[in-house]
Amino acid sequence: MRYTFLLYSDPADFAHMTPEDWAREKEVYGAYIGALQEAGVFLDTDWLHPAETATTITLKDGEKRVQDGPFADTKETLGGFFAIDVPDLDAALVWAEKCPAAKHGKVEIRSSAMGSS
Amino acid sequence: MTQACAQARAEDVARAAYGKLLAMLASRTGDIAAAEDALSEAFLAALRTWPTRGVPDSPEAWLLTAAKNRRIDQARKDARLVVTNEVPEMTDVFVPDLDETLDERLKLLFVCAHPAIDVAIRTPLMLQTVLGLEAEQIARAFLVSPTAMAQRLVRAKKKIKSAGIPFAIPDVASLPDRMASVLEAVYGAYAVDWLEGAGDLSHEAFFLSTILADLVPKDPEALGLTALIGFIEARRDARVHENMLVPVPDQDTDLWDMAMIERSANMLSRAATLGKTGRFQLEAAIQSVHAARSATGQTDWRALSQLYAGLVKLHPTIGAVVGRAAVTVEDAGPAEALKLLAKIEGPETDRYQPYHATHAHCLSRLGRIAEAAAAYDKAVSLCTDLPSRRWLAQKVAELRQNIS
Fold it and tell me: Backbone phi, then psi, for B62, in 5-degree steps?
């Protein structure tokens, strides 16, 4: 089954990071992605620009409205995702636990509703 | 003496004496961060002066004096007095008493593993304060960003200072508990093994365990812990072959480090003479039985089975029960092993990979091949260590071949 990890964190926690820190952080994620790939469970991932750069659009109420910023102003924001293919939630949980994002933020695990009856 | 040579000498002294010097500096004020600053200033001063004046006879004492002076300077500055920054003319005035320095390091370990310090930061704190590891190295091993790790370490040191955690050997009543948490944290440094190579701390952890065994040579569990880590370290080169796990009973004993095994065996028998069994000694004894195969050519499953029974009684964890079941397969047989596993089956074993792997092994030995393959599949899905994952996947493939 396909599971998506939504990675939430507080941008303030990263405020003092130096370019070297970011390079190291990238290495940590690189190792994690490598492990997912070698285990044959990796599907996709992305790392997003900060929430304040978001643009939100809606046609709800019959009118197009474009908003500069995220739809919800929260302390912890979505920073990226991983999509993996594992048999069940137990397996998704062991991988989510290894996700570097879980160390300083929260990882929300959601199973795919596509193709399920 | 050249700059490079003086630097190399200062670095050698740093590595060997870091924890000792830091503990001596911090124990009076309880301020680890200030002691670290003073010590690094002292190292800088050494790099400036040793190339021209020569390395002192006792570099450790020199560094300690320099750091103490530096700290006094800092204290005066804090009191808004005018002081000079110049490194004082120093002779080797103070040669620390060996016993005293050992005690100070032990106190530092007790501070790091104090109940008021968050369990998760105890091990990193020990690695930094006792071995002088950089936050960056520690961060890599614990898979967190260096900034996050540095912040947590700073927070822990502030807490030690502001909460007034004493640099002292705990009283007799609380000593066993406190000692247990020190041992646990040292073992924690060894257990950080995921993504090996990204930041492998096993050598540092082993070193930490030998320091601890030196500090409290009368504590059988401290000896047991260093024996345990030593036995496992001795098998390092045999653990993985062509990227695949090799289980201990199948390992090529020629690849084992026999000197390390002998050392561990000595530690373990020293522990035994102290007459108090404990978890780490039992785990080390289990490893010593495996190690004996290098001499006898076979594994004594009965001995393993008895030791695991003892471990389960003394330290009943899911891991111990699964380990017991795994050796019981070879001793009393797979049916008996299944009974042991059945006793612990529940929510806690759902995501515990070794449970499913052992369960699969029992089923396969009983000829229940389809069930065994399903259990191996479950184990594979829960396995994040790649060599182990490949080994489990191979087991499934073999079983499936038997079915078809």
Answer: -60, -50
Judge whether B126 and B32 are in contact, CB under 8 Å.
Answer: no
Q: Nearest CA to CA, how far is B386 from chain A (Å)?
A: 7
Write out chain B residues lying below 8 Å of A103, CB-based. 142-144, 148
pLDDT digits (tens, 9 = 90+) for B348-366: 899 899 999 999 999 999 9
> Taking the model in full, what pTM does it have?
0.77
The ipTM (two decimal places) reads 0.76
Burial (CB < 10 A; 0-12, 13-18, 19+), residue A22, is: middle
Q: Which two tokens stand for residue B33?
A: 């961060």
pLDDT for the residue A20: 82
Q: Which one of A21, A94, A98 has the shortest CB-CB distance to B145?
A: A21
Kindly report the number of other CB atoms within 10 A of residue B334's CB atom. Answer: 19
Query: Position A6: which residue type?
Result: L
CB-based contact B26:B35 (threshold 8 Å): yes
What whole-number distance in Å separates Cα of residue A95 and Cα of residue A107?
11
**Residues of B whose CB is below 8 A from A107:** none
Q: How many CB atoms lie within 10 A of CB B173?
A: 8
Radius of gyration (C-alpha) of chain A in whole angstroms: 16
Token readout for B46 is: 């050494």
